[in-house]
Amino acid sequence: MGRFAVRDLSAAHWQTLAILDAVSGEVSLDVLERLSPLEPQDVHALVRRSVSAGIVTETKNRGLILSPGVSLTVKRRLSRINTKKRLASIAARVQRLDPKDGLTADARISLLLKAGLDYDAALLAQEEAEKCVREGNASDALGFLERAYGISAGRLGDAQWDMLFILIVNELCRLTINAAGNIRRIPSLLEQERPVAERLGDLRTLARIDLVSGLYHYVMGDTAQGLENITSGLQKAEELGDEDIILISSEFRGIYYYLKGMYKEAVDTFDQVMRVNSLPSGGRAPTFLPEHLASSSALGYISALLGQYHRAVGLLDSHWRRARMRKNDRNACFYEALLGIVLIITGRRTEAYSHLKSAQKEALEIDNRQALHVAKKGLAYHAYFEGRLEDAYWITMSMPHTESIGPQYNWPVHLEMLYAFERQDLLPPMPSLAFEQEITRVLDGPNHHLRGVALRIRALQAQERGDPHEDVLGLLRSSESELLLTGDPVELAKTRAEMARVQIARKDRPAARNYALMAWEGLSGYGQDFFPDDLVPLLRVGAPRRPGPRRQDLIERFTDLMDGFIPSTDGDEFLNRLVAAASRFFGADRGGLFWSAGGRDAGRPALRASYNLERSDISAEPFRESLRLIFKTFRNKEPLILKGVSGRRDREGGSQGVSVFCLPVTLKGEVRGVLYLDNFYTETGDDTEALDRDTALRLARQVSFSIERILRYAGMIETDRSRAASAHSSGDSDDAADRIIGSSPVMEVLLALSDQAAQSDATVLITGETGVGKELLARRIHDKSPRKDSPFVPVNLASIPETLVESELFGHEKGAFTGADRQKPGRIELAHRGTLFIDEIGDVPPGVQVKLLRVIQEKSFSRVGGTRTLISDFRLVAATNRDLARDAASGRFRQDLYFRLNVVPLLMPPLRDRGEDVVDLAQEFLRRYARKYHRALPAMTGEDVKALMAYSWPGNVRELKNVIERCAILSSKDRLQFHLPSSAGPISDPAFAGTPSMDELQRRYILHVLDLAHGRIGGPGGAAEILGMKRTTLQARMRKLGIGK
């Protein structure tokens, strides 16, 4: 093999083998062909000979690797070839490959590290993690984040690295908590992140660190420290006050209220998060909460703690079934266990027991200790409610706790059950959940709900001891005060019922009756299921039991509900709120608004807004009968009220009946949709009993009126926004009123191509010298495109300091960095539904190029300092006076970004190549400036035309415009005076010959322009204006290049 290696291999052969040495892992033959300088047939021949000689090994997957036993001589030769510069070149070529056909992400990261491109490697690992998250692969995402963390952790101190590190740690903490990974490392990560955020002045990250730290302490069982940290984070978020940090902190605010037992506020907060996350326009904030605490999950059991059992059952049942469909067994058995507990509390114990036993069995099979804990807890509650106290005790004794977490529960029945154990002398003390220990812990804790229950139990204990009635009432009044803060009518009613009993014992029947009536009113939606039988006689003394609502009362209450909706600027957000409110009003498990954009003749309605109902539910077999009823309502314009409709299968495989309520929605005499509500588990309430056809029609009219009113308002707001945005963006350029003037052949071809490109949404790259009018061409493309009624948003990167480019394009959040004192939307965000024009695209800093590429590909981005993903549907037109192809080949500009930009290339010709367009433009500018300066100017003579045509116009149209403006100001009434340089020539004169450095080339060109401007730097026609620079910027550049004033 020695002779083969030394004598027979050319430099190109060695370079091909060096690719295998550069890449970690196997390389397919196809990839090797694309990266090799050899022709494909020569690569095949080299591979065959190298495999035979033992230099290359073919793997089981038909990939190629450098053989482990290759000689030291060969390894040294390959190492000499693979310099960092060459490895960077290979990495650049790999970027052009389709990821599906190219190297693995791990191999690309390793290659970038070998090439010394550490930042690119860390950034690629972070991007791959984002991709895995989008695909639902949290495990691989964590792997990539760990790698990105390992690369970046030792390179802190530079602002670019610091910002990337914060992004990596932020996501690493989030996924670790979400995926129930090694959460014990969270404090260490946060403490590494804190000084980096302080160094950057990143107040948003400092707020988030406190929030995540609080969540960690709560999950670990330290509720007090968790609340303290979350409170600190929420205060910092409030001080910042921008939309993004408020949205990110909303879920933590929900957890704060949950830990405090303030369930009404918790539900309102989680509801808000859910509404924002359900909007089609984007804006979803990534959740830091584990699955069982996330907004949609928490709403289920918190609704039950508020006594909103219809909603709780609907949410948890929906989560359970979706987890089943997605084959997510860990979440499915957890949700099923929670569903079982709620069904127990509502009195549906047979169904509850079936769910709990199933969840317990599955949790044991897949070793889901958290779900097993909840299932066993539910089975203990079931035994307790069934009167099997000893069974409940032994189930509780065997209940496993989740790893590293102390006793956590929010169900009031838990304390009541422990009290029952305490009163049963035959049962031995429970060491892990001793009654007195738990009561003391709860009373010293922050949860108003549990404190209210504990105080009621203390009152019962005092009553059993024979304490004075006033002492007992004092404890019950304290219980009432605590429970009033929670929003739970059921537990509050229980306390008031005990207060009524104490008043009976005191022989104060009027006071007893008053407390009994208050308890009854609190339970008005729950009836005899929760009201104690022994207090019923009190309701009959002088006041009959509250009758069920009559039809007129129902209509009036529903009308008040609909009228209470405040007009929203987002129609979809409003519709989701309306469906949720209607579902709660009628006690429905699920609801949906099925909508047809074009009326009944435009096809069947589709789901537009929902409550506990997803598109996957609609397409599933169990919903087929409901869908038929929706279409029937849509066709017949008649409401439907049906019970016992064939629905899904229950746990035992039988058919589970469903109650269905459908209301047609009519706008301007045309049926446009159907409001659908259904109910599986719980009995329909008194409201549905009061429904007949006439009542249902009146309700349908009220829904239709409300929807029409809000959609009309939202449409008006959107129209006003579009007009304002268009007007604002159009005013950004002094040339907004300009049009392209020219009839030369080269311009006719260009304009025909641009008009054709305008009809598509393809990215356009306009190239040409400075001053040729690239922005005017971009504006013409916008004006002739389908997006012409939306904003045209220009941004010139050459005029923006490099450190502010990212903020200008993507926007920033308040507190994202020092000096970010308010939220600022970026140009990409402002260009939504319109055209974004980026001038001097070649000046995009390397660190921003990756983010820009992602925005072009996905139309999604985050503001600087933000984590919320925003969507912007824009059409991109870019321009540059640089040779981007050469920059991409040399590595100064990302090749993948160049290929994305160069979809429709248009070359704007220099003015010297446009023939008589010079004269046409000069005449137009003369007319314009004559009007502007109120001058009566003579016509151009033949000599003037010859002079204009003879000049080479190195500054192009911009220079011509400046010359004509100066002419309009300085010329006499008899003759135009253009003041053209007599020795002007193209910039390829000998003065620019040779191969000067970039600084020398800039120096020569600035001197050339100063000569054209007769030494003037500022003012009309000055060098700064010709060069398109600020006067101060040009003076600074001149000082740097050694050019005297």
**Could you report the average pLDDT, rounded to the nearest whole number?**
81
Structural class comes to alpha/beta
* Major sheet: 5 strands, antiparallel
Write down how many β-strands occur, each being a DSSP E stretch of 2 or more residues.
16
The coarse overall form would be globular
Strand content: 5-15%
* Gap between N and C termini: 69 Å
CATH class of the largest domain: Alpha Beta
- Kindly state the percentage of residues in helix: 55-70%
Question: Can you tell me the CATH architecture of the largest domain?
Answer: 3-Layer(aba) Sandwich
Domain Sigma-54 factor interaction: 740-969
Keywords: Activator, ATP-binding, DNA-binding, Nucleotide-binding, Transcription, Transcription regulation
Pfam family, one: AAA_lid_14
Organism: anaerobic digester metagenome
Short structural summary:
With 1045 residues, this protein is of the alpha/beta class.
Structural commentary:
Helix content is 58%, strand content 8%. It is α/β, with parallel strands linked by helices and 1045 residues long. The chain has seven domains: 116 residues, Winged helix-like DNA-binding domain superfamily/Winged helix DNA-binding domain (Arc Repressor Mutant, subunit A, Orthogonal Bundle), CATH 1.10.10; 93 residues; 84 residues, no CATH class; 56 residues, no CATH class; 167 residues, Beta-Lactamase (2-Layer Sandwich), CATH 3.30.450.40; 179 residues, P-loop containing nucleotide triphosphate hydrolases (Rossmann fold), CATH 3.40.50; 126 residues, Helicase, Ruva Protein, domain 3 (Orthogonal Bundle), CATH 1.10.8. Helix 7 runs antiparallel to helix 8, helix 21 crosses helix 22 and helix 25 runs antiparallel to helix 26. The longest helix is centred in the last third of the chain and has 38 residues. About 4% of the residues have low confidence.
